[in-house]
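User: Second chain of the day. Same drill as before.
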Amino acid sequence: MAKHLILGAAGGMGAVSARLSALQGNALVLVDRPSDAFDHLEEECRKLGGSVTAYRFDITDADSVNHLINNLENEPEITGCIYTIGVSPQMAPAEIIIKIDLVKTRELISDLKGVIAPGGALVAITSMSAYLCPADAELEACLRNPDGSTLISRLQADHPSILDNPGLAYAYSKKALLQYVQEESMTWGKEGKRIVSIAPGLIATDMGNQEMSAVPDFEKRLAMVSTGRMGAPEEIAHTALFLLSEQASYITGCDILVDGGFIGHVQALQR
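Assistant: Same format as last time:
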């Protein structure tokens, strides 16, 4: 039996991942902000028969994060982690997106390496939008700088336009996150651990539907999907659980597109 840590457990992809993992008979450690949805998920997973521990925390609060890590260090044999924490362009301004989706996420993933058992793995959620933002070597180098405490001030000085555009902030943050996964794989590998990311496409979660409702040419975008439909959160969850399994033991340091062929189609048109 595996023991899966799921962060952002109350969200669409996180909740589905938790339920599927519980159905597989795995022990669960669920983490999210306090909410009725999180309470209901915890109760539901317990009814599915697995061992469930739940922690409530706020990723923007340093004391809360430290308290979480201290608790997780006392959780024996966490074999896998699915990291789904993030905010989207319809949920927050650009500065908040960069702080949560990149800076705080990168810091927390670094801390989580210490609580995952050797042989374990972490799967982070990025986005297919990371493949669509224009190449900008200077901006991308700035976002890859691990000193998150000064990132916003550097962006204000050198790349102020990104702070006016939540969509671009989201895409570049996700691109920087998948690059972080690539860069960290060797460090994780030296400890016998893997790190990999998933880039979802148009997924029918509450957050995904909210984003799509704000896209004026959504039907044209959907027509670019090779499968001809939006994806289901279960399709992301199944992929994540596979990546945590022994069957994926040679997969690390890469981003897995689960987008119905959207990016492949776009790239083919550009050739």
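Residues 51 and 147 are 38 Å apart (CA to CA).

User: Great, on to the next one.
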